Amino acid sequence: MLNRNTIHEATRLTRAGKLVEATALLQRMLRGETAAEPFDRAGPPAPARLEPPTIEVKADVVGKKERRPATRAASAQRRGRPAPLDNMQEFAGLGLRGPILRAPPSMSDVAPDGTQFIAGTFRNAAGVRAYKLFIPSRSRGEPLPLVVMLHGCTQSADDFAAGTRMNFLARNCFVVYPEQPRAANQSKCWNWFRTGDQERDGGEPSLIAGITRQVMQDHRIDPKRVYVAGLSAGGAAAAIMAATHPDLYAAVGIHSGLVCGAASDLPSALVAMRQGARSIISHRGPQVPTIVFHGDRDTTVHPNNGDRIAEQSGNASDFNAKVIGGKVPHGHAYTRTILTDVSGRAVSEHWNVHGAGHAWSGGSPAGSYTDPSGPDASREMLRFFLEQSLPT
Fold first, then answer.
1. pTM, full prediction
2. How confident is the model at residue 23 (pLDDT cuts 50, 70, 90)?
3. Three-class SS string for the chain?
């Protein structure tokens, strides 16, 4: 299905700044259509654009909303086929009117009474990022765990906190929400597909790790119990953080994301999202315990990506596997695969949510891109996290 000539041509178009043409070419290839004649080959390729290409790992809104006329993309989603991407603007998330126009969540949906949700900023050589920090009411005693939450495209810290309700579940944890500005990506996506943002000591990983360490320095955090999780583009970024900082994070939660190194540019990112991809990067560090959530009707990030993450996190031959089926009352069924090591410690969990699309499982409609009918991903991730700690 992949055509090297088509990939090469799409890469040339991307470097020339012709993202609409590159996207259309890749769409035809993924649909199995014969490629048209190359776009505009007159003259040498233009220099690569300086601003980062924008790729939206958008979410399928599953929560109940007022009924609207069905769109071609929505019809394709119901039939279980990938929705056509009509133009680069829609793909970049600019057409996601729901989260952009919806009113900000109220504070009662973001954090419980008696707690704090404060703003902060971190700066280093890679840039500056704002963040929001949840401070639990019991924060002056013994050191507490810290959970780093990476939002999806078009989302904010408040929106993601309201949708996941992590601040209500992590009553004895600090929770920090780094925010991606539009200056870094026009759809506020974490740039998971750029090689410069897949490295330990540079780009966005250095900023997210810097925020993590700043919170650890400013508050009483247990350094052995620091975790990272994310949705969609944030899930892919969380996978990168686990791969590049296994000495900082004791566990990782990846919801509807991709493995670290699944893509190195826009064309390969499109292919990874549509078909699934294994990492092209060799990571020699210790494997971070991983919990994965992915809907098997996800037409934005192919469910194969959840399988690839689970395979990578449980690639040892001496793990024991246990498969459990279940169903949320009046909601989605799921298959939960647990891998344990010889000591009985869970090193990987994969929740395959049947019938679910691209949205936070079990989330609240107070936030965008949530599916209240699924198993509670926030609760299960938190349970999995608190079973893990860095070695002494």
1. 0.79
2. low
3. CCCHHHHHHHHHHHHCCCHHHHHHHHHHHHCCCCCCCCCCCCCCCCCCCCCCCCCCCCCCCCCCCCCCCCCHHHHHHHCCCCCCCCCHHHHCCCCCHHHHHCCCCCHHHHCCCCCEEEEEEEEECCEEEEEEEEECCCCCCCCEEEEEEECCCCCCHHHHHHHHCHHHHCCCCEEEEECCCCCCCCCCCCCCCCHHHCCCCCHHHHHHHHHHHHHHHHCCEEEEEEEEEEECHHHHHHHHHHHHCCCCCCEEEEECCCCCCCCCCHHHHHHHHHHCCCCCCCCCCCCCCEEEEEECCCCCCCCHHHHHHHHHHCCCCCCEEEEEEEECCCCCEEEEEEEECCCCCEEEEEEEECCCCCCEECCCCCCCCEECCCCCHHHHHHHHHHCCCCCC
